Amino acid sequence: MKKIVNILTFHHIHNQQDSLSITPSIFEKLISELKKNYTFISYEDFTQIILGKKTPKKNSVLISIDDGYLDNYIYAYPILKKLDVPAVIFLITNNILTSSTCRAKLLYFRTHKELQINSDKKLFINKCEIQKMKNSGLISFESHTTSHMVCKNINESVLKKEFSKSLEFIKDLDKKEFYGFCWPRGYFDKTALEVIKKFYSFSFSTIDGGHNFDDDLYTLKRIDCSSWNGNQKKYIARVKRKLFIYSTPFLSKFYSNFREYQIKKKKARKIRAKQK
Fold first, then answer.
1. Any long-range contacts for 165-174 (C-beta under 8 Å, 24+ apart)?
2. What average pLDDT does the structure give for the chain?
3. For the chain, what are the domain ranges?
4. What is the pLDDT of residues 211-228, one digit of tens each?
5. Which of 77, 141, 259, 270 has its CA at a distance of 20 to 30 angstroms from the CA of residue 86?
6. From 1.10.3660.10, 3.20.20.370, 1.20.1110.10, 3.20.20.480, which CATH number describes the 5-275 domain?
């Protein structure tokens, strides 16, 4: 039986209470707990697995972090290094400043919502920090477009510009055979799916689930772990429960489809409410 690879998704790791964020202590506790029963794989190994060039070990897990915020370097990276756990960070490439200085702390705090409205480049990792993480051999980097543009209902020429420019940036960071992409906010449509194949070998979605061997390579499922409910024990139990479900082939597909159905129903209700 083909094995499933689960991809965990994070955004912010810092000590402020905010959406799409967890504290460094919870981040470290979660990974330490999962290491007891799961194998954290490198992004290079993950690439070889999904392209059919390598067989995954049982309970393989990849850590992914979206957007490339400075807190990823200040808080997440030291923990990953301490626990010897690899990860991939998806960069909004226009937000990366050239710098020869790696920072030791957050300069100030902006909420996730504020950063979505106004991309304060000082609160994203810079080239010095990227290089330091890359040199560790633990952290890989891929594209999340140049501007975090939602790739839905967008002209093909605009999509090509976003995909090609961000890919060019990533290629300057790291020469490799295959490159991946992460859909901003999980949005894409038929046009975007057609265009993306001209630039990248695979792409990550926000569809909840584990990666099965016969899944589409351009809508790779992930498990969102980006926020907690204020209770560390319940948060870790929730992630463990999802990993158990998504590591079981039959349960994985069933639960993933059920979750997607729930999300679509919720979106439809919001649209109807706005139309009234």
1. 165/93, 166/91, 166/93, 167/143, 167/199, 167/200, 169/91, 169/93, 169/96, 169/143, 170/91, 170/93, 170/141, 170/142, 170/143, 173/130, 173/134, 173/141, 174/134, 174/140, 174/141
2. 93
3. 5-275
4. 988 899 999 999 999 999
5. 259
6. 3.20.20.370
